[in-house]
Every structure is written in structure tokens, then in C-alpha cells.
């Protein structure tokens, strides 16, 4: 088992004719993902890596039975591309694009409350179920099939922790990068809930960072609803207030909210051990298994 | 993140939208200030135009009742250092005879994923203190971005906040206009503190903070043109030119990496192993050799840096490109200015390790080992 993506996921790539879209389509297919279509307005009838391209997402769904999309569309058009995907009744939309205007995401967020489609991202590395499918830009070779779920706001930090796990022979059910923007689709709580309901996931890693209150909410969810053990990591302990650390969401406000300390305390109070280093997170997971 | 507008820029935008602002002029010399006050009259406010919060407390805003005070204020404020920024312009503004001071703000509530409008009768003071000590004093309403601020919501906030009845509708309409500006300009926040209710019962924006979501600047050429470099130091300006996410800190271990979360983690590990991080520098995804060389140049330019750690976990970034960039950057030196520890993992890391000139850098296999070695190097250099 796994969460959100598996062998049956049939992917349409929005923006497949662009540089990133093309390269990662090839990478996804090499990994074994069922990429069944591309969607680029005005490029219908072309082929990329042997995959047929359609002008609209709805055509790709009708013709190729796609049930998920990956968005590689540039930021100026990404909000619109996500709306298009949400209006086609897909199960899952994964938005990789970095730099989507926040007010566009506020409108997307409103739409999400009206549809059944799940959005992951934007500004995220995507999702992978090792051995079955990857939707996004994660390097497939560091993952291994196994029983640990992983959810993280950051891409490269995910890779770091995954490699710490894989080196010890600890594989993963599914790993998700939820993205570093202020407004995102799938939250920590959504991913944790899905891992809790997945019988093959025996432990979960949650990598958070400074800014916002998502980690605190996740801690509350873990305390109240989870039997599966969770180990955590929080990046940004040394970040000074008022300075943004790369991600649009990674900022400790002047009034002291969103600090690493508050997140670590919340997780500890929920019984979640928080590693001082990524390797220590792997130690905790090893203890759980 | 955000592009900050100066008070005078935000007030121009407000005035064009029909929001009343006090009469004002921009001045960059004492003579210009004196000309301006002659036209505007007394009392006049002389206000530093720098991107710093709490200007008043820091001495960046003064009220002049006559010519002598105006000259004194101009001399004091122009050229002063305000929390690291040099003041080169002031806004000379007509004093407002007010009876009430309100707080009005619109910002994005991350948790809700919606904008929120806020009004309080406790304006003119630090609103964060009000929010903490007496949260009920701030009336709030979340806004559905698909519809905007409904007129009834604007009225509801105003009545909830206890705004005097005779100006309630005026404040509600003021708030509606402000939300239109928020949406039309892709603002991330607008804050007016205080909004003054004058003795004639007019509603006037006496201050103006407006920040624009810089991810949306592509559709606001007019706003993008207003951006003025206001970096706190030369290195941050240089990072802006190179297009890096860079934050300067006070330690001596320079840090370069890819991806915000991993770079933050590298900073945290420097601290964990007893060192002090000198900076946050994210080269971003898919960086080519030249970008890597620029990153090293940045960190070497920081006098405080005694040692450097370069930590790359490649996804779309390729280890061989990084190695090439590091070689290029270091081969131009007769002597490497500061010891560099490199750790490469992920995509093409092995190829990178083969290319890397190990006469010039120290190589470590794990993140922890790389950071520890860089901290040791810094301790040796600084002794």
C-alpha cells in the first residue's frame, strides 16, 4: 500500500513541452510512472517522449483516462493551470511551479474547498511511492520500497533524510514534499491522516520548518488521532526574526510566532521525538521499527 | 517575498484611489524641507522614508511647530542612520488635527488561506501589543478572495470595532477601497496606523505601509518600477544582483547549499556543533557552474567568514556542475582565501567527486562530518 499515488496513477503533465516539463517527463517515465498525456494550449497533436499532447486537460482525461496531473507551467500561468486541473475532476494535482502569486493561491484554495481533488504544492518537489510511481522532480534512485512514510515542506531536506533512512536499509511507503509557500494544498495534517490509515506505513517522518502554524496543528493531530509513531525534524532553529530563509513561508514574525522552539515543543508534547540532526531522525525511526 | 513601498509611494497610490491623505511633499535636503514647510504650514511632520518599522521611536519622525524646529528636524533626520539604513529623503506632511486614531489593516491569513481585514479603535500604538494584550479590541473579518470584501462585511467590522457612529459608513467605505487596492496591486499587506478622524470628522490615512507580493510583480510593471534598492549592506545588494536567496548573519562559518530547508538545516548544524553561521545562501535548483562560482565569491567577500561549508544534495542540481563551479572559482586564487569543505550527494555526486580538485578543497561524505570540519576550520582560523 501507499498513499495518494501508485501503479494505477495515470498522469497528464501540464507544461510538458517546456524544458523542465520535458526533462522530468522522461525522468518520471524512466522511474516507471504511467505518464499518459501532456496538456499544453496550442500544442495539441504533438508528442513528447512518445506521449500524446492535448490542448486541454479535459481532452487528456477523456482520451487517455488520466487521473492525476503534474504542473510544470511557469508561475504567471500556474494558477490558471491548477484551476483547469481542478475543474476536470482529477484525483490528484501536483504543482511543482515555484513563485505562484499568493493571491492566485488564495483563489485556488477557495476552489479546493468545493472539489474532491487533492492538490500537492505548489513550490514542491512532488510525491513518490518507491517502486511504483513518482510525480515531480524527486531523484528516484535514493528511495527504496519499505514501511516509512515521509512528509516534508522542503525538497532537498527530504532527500537528506531519505538517504539517511535508505543507507540503513529503511525503505519508504510514500514520500511527499508539500511545499514551502504560505498557501498550499495538502497540509501536514492531511498527509499524516493518510499515513495513519495506511496499514503498510509503520512509522512516519515529518520535516517542518519555521513560519506559520502548520507544525503545531500537526502536533495536535498526532496527539489526538495517531497510533503510528512519528519522528520529527524542524529546520530554522538559528533563523533570526523578520528574515525570510528562502521559502516564502519560512519567516519568524516579529511577534515571535512560527519559531522552531514553539514547533519542537509542540511536537515533543505530542510524544514526537525531534532530531537535532537529520541522522538522529533516522535513529528514532530505527527505534520505532 | 515582498517588495516594500515607501510611505510616500503608498500614499500616492491611496490618493489616486480617492483615499484622503494629508498634503505632503518629498524632500532630500534641508532647503527642500524649508520650501515644503513654507507651503504646507505648521504644524508639520518630517518623516524619514526608509523601510524600517518603528521609525517614530527611533527618531525618524519629528513634528515641527515653527521654522526653527523644522530646520532642526530636517538636519537631524536627513543623513541619520536608522537601524542600518541611511535616511536620504523625508516626507514633509501637514499635521492633522485629529480626535480619534484607528488601526486599519489587511493581510493574508496563512492558516485560513484567505485575506483578513482588521480594524481597531486603538490606533497610533504598537498593534502587535494590542493583539496580544487585548485581542478583542481588534475586529476582524476573513475575505473570500473569489468575491472580495462584501459591503456588509466592511460595515460589520466597523460596528464590531466600535467606530463612532457618525463616521462609521465613511470608515467602511475607506476599508472597501483599501481592499480593492489590496487585490488590484497583489499586495501582501496594507497597514494604516493611524487612520485619523479629524476634528471635521474626515477620515484620513496618516501613515501607510504597503507591501507587494514580489511573485506577482510580473503583472505590475508600474509597481516594479517603484522598487528602490534598500539593502542593509553591500553583500545583500550583491546577492540581489546574483539572484540568490541570501541572509547575512553575524557568525564566521560561511554556508552555501541548495534548497531552503537543507540550507537552514546546515545553519542549524553549524550552531549544533558549536560554530556560528555567517549567512544563509541558497543557490536554488539546477544551478550551473557559473552560479556556483558566484556563490563562493559572495561568501569570500564577507570579511567575517573564516571557513566555508558547501553542502549540495542534488535533485535537479547536478554534482558535476557544482564541482566544476567550485574548481573554476578556486583556481583563480594563488592561495585559497578561506578553507572550503565540500559535501556532494544525490544526482551525479560521484562524477562531481571525481572532478573536484581536492588540492583546493576538503571533502566529507556526510552532512554532519562536513559541518563539523568547517566549524573546526573556523575555530583554528579565528584563534
UniProtKB/TrEMBL annotation, chain A:
Catalytic activity: acetate + ATP + CoA = acetyl-CoA + ADP + phosphate; GTP + succinate + CoA = succinyl-CoA + GDP + phosphate; succinate + ATP + CoA = succinyl-CoA + ADP + phosphate
Active-site residues annotated for this sequence: 247
Ranges of residues in domain CoA-binding: 4-100
EC assignment: 6.2.1.5
Residues annotated for CoA binding in this entry: 17-20, 43, 96-98
GO MF annotations, alphabetized: acetate-CoA ligase (ADP-forming) activity; nucleotide binding; succinate-CoA ligase (ADP-forming) activity; succinate-CoA ligase (GDP-forming) activity
Cellular component annotations (GO), alphabetically ordered: succinate-CoA ligase complex (ADP-forming)
Residues reported to bind substrate: 159
Assembly and interaction partners: Heterotetramer of two alpha and two beta subunits.
Family: Belongs to the succinate/malate CoA ligase alpha subunit family.
Chain's role: Succinyl-CoA synthetase functions in the citric acid cycle (TCA), coupling the hydrolysis of succinyl-CoA to the synthesis of either ATP or GTP and thus represents the only step of substrate-level phosphorylation in the TCA. The alpha subunit of the enzyme binds the substrates coenzyme A and phosphate, while succinate binding and nucleotide specificity is provided by the beta subunit.
Protein's name according to its UniProt entry: Succinate--CoA ligase [ADP-forming] subunit alpha
Organism: Haloferax marinum
Lineage summary: Archaea, Methanobacteriati, Methanobacteriota, Stenosarchaea group, Halobacteria
Recorded name of the encoding gene: sucD
